[in-house]
Design a protein that fits this description.
Length: 363
Amino acid sequence: MPSRIHKSIQNKKKIGQTAGGWDKHSFIPGSSNGRTTDSDSVNHGSNPWPGSLDSHNKKKHDNDSDLQEPGEVLVPFDKETGPPALLDPLQQYLTEVNRYPLLTREEEMETVHHYHKFHDKESAQKLVVSNLRLVVKIALEYNRAFHNLLDLIQEGNIGLLKAVKKYDPAKGTRFSYYASWWIRAFILKYIIDNFRLVKIGTTQAQKKLFYNLMKEKRKLEALGFAPESRLLSERLDVKEKDVVQMEQRMMASDLSLDAPTPHAEGKVNLDFFSDDSVPVDVKVEEDELKKNLFAHMQEFVSGLKEKEKKIFKERLYAEVPKTLQEIADEYGITRERIRQLEERVVAKLRTFFKHKGFEVEKK
């Protein structure tokens, strides 16, 4: 029995040492042999992979050993093609990324100038795949804000593609430094767009508050100040009402309108929201009434006298009606006489439409 266990341990070691870098050191960016070079630290800083990935991988292998018989391998594989793909999508992606070599400063500048001159697909692809580890490193910084790391990596990759198109080597900055800004911008935009089902940051002021409000609150509390909305608005250079609204949005959670209401049996949340819009049937009825009124309006006006027509058009039918005195001055009569003529026009209008079958209420 000990000999069988010894063979099982040897088989496991062979699996970990197979070509393709499947051992734990292969997840360290910058080298396929597990060592980080100086050029790697310039490109991407220290090791970006979280320590939990190694422990997570180790636990998976420990669990696998409980399921197999001593001396047996669960999934046989060809040594030339390497071990089977990991079931964890994140670990599988990191393994794929680690296969692409990093570029030295000279190689990067040569590739950048070649793409800037010819805009060829091969140079662009070389720049992208050599900086995929940089995307993962930046995405890990926001893993606490958005737990789906693969989604953040995907958005960061889109930002990396944008950086390849926009980069100008004449500016003198390194491509990896320039690309980090585009990668971060796309990741931050994705986080704010997906923080809630309903977007909470659409304007520039709202985005500034989304990224800095809680941070500024902690600063004020550390200094011994109460983080009031007025003080926060002054420090962040935004309106106080924007601070209040963003606090309410960030503290509140999404609410389903179709979810049952806890304090009313048989009711959903939608039942307690009032709709101030005009019902469809009422709107259709009003539109039909207006259509009929306008259709008979010309007939009514044609039966009026000259002064009555003027009063109707400039007083009753005008968007900005003239005063009684203005019309009275045009005809050289008193203001009271114009008022009497206006009352007569209203009476004729009411009688006319009553004969046409419309109900007219007296005010």
